[in-house]
Amino acid sequence: MTVPDVEWVDDIDSTNAELLRRHRALPARFALAARRQRAGRGRQGRHWLSPEGNLYLSVFARLRTAAAGLSGMSLAVGISVCEAVRARGIERAQVKWPNDLQVDGAKLGGVLIEIASAGSDGSAVVIGLGLNLAMPPDHAPDQAWTDLHQLGIDVDPCTWASCMTEAIVAAVDRFDAEGLDAFHDRWDAIDALRGRGVEVQGAQSVSGTARGIDAHGALRVEHAGGMWLCRSGEVRVRAA
Q1: How far apart, in whole angstroms, are the C-alpha atoms of residue 105 and residue 164?
Q2: Distances in Å between the alpha carbon of 139 and those of 34, 52, 75, 103, 195?
Q3: Residue 1: inside a domain, yes or no?
Q4: Cys staple from 148: which of 74, 82, 98, 153, with CB 3.0 to 4.6 Å?
Q5: Cross-strand partners of 52
Q6: Residues 100 and 203 reside in one and the same domain
Q7: Confidence (pTM)
């Protein structure tokens, strides 16, 4: 595994957008981090709050896997990132399907994967990670959240950028070689939804109990009509 050094910028519109613009000239693995973003984005094009004090990291990767085979990669990355966070002292870290890093139900970070190029002989992707290091109080998001500072963990951005880059590259390399099968058993240990009552809003609305993921990374929801597979949509934990 070759882990690239992290290139740093103080201010940028979006680290993901920058690597998408530069992807044709980039090496097989490349990492870019910013201290703040003006136009960070999350799933489904949502704005990602990006004040100074947190980590905004994007990793570019060329893959042998075609774009059609990338289903589940965000879960693989989430698993690897979560395990790395746990190894640095946050043992309660979990992943809320499909891409939110949480501690005790409060959001610590998130993953966004975008396809830079796709062909019959492979693909190229940009994996974005936002991680709350020390969220400025006047920029707090309108949802349950936490950061490393609150959790009593060192918040040196360079240390975390290197650690997260290594975790992302490890996940990408293994996923490219073995697919989601290599990660499936590791999901159970970090699954924030397993066994919990959930409501899924999307093309179809379903209420039931989360039962892990299938072989392709879809969320399995057990409900009155049987087992339903959720491949996209918003998932909310039902109040007890």
Answers
A1: 21
A2: 17, 10, 28, 19, 33
A3: no
A4: 153
A5: 54
A6: no
A7: 0.93
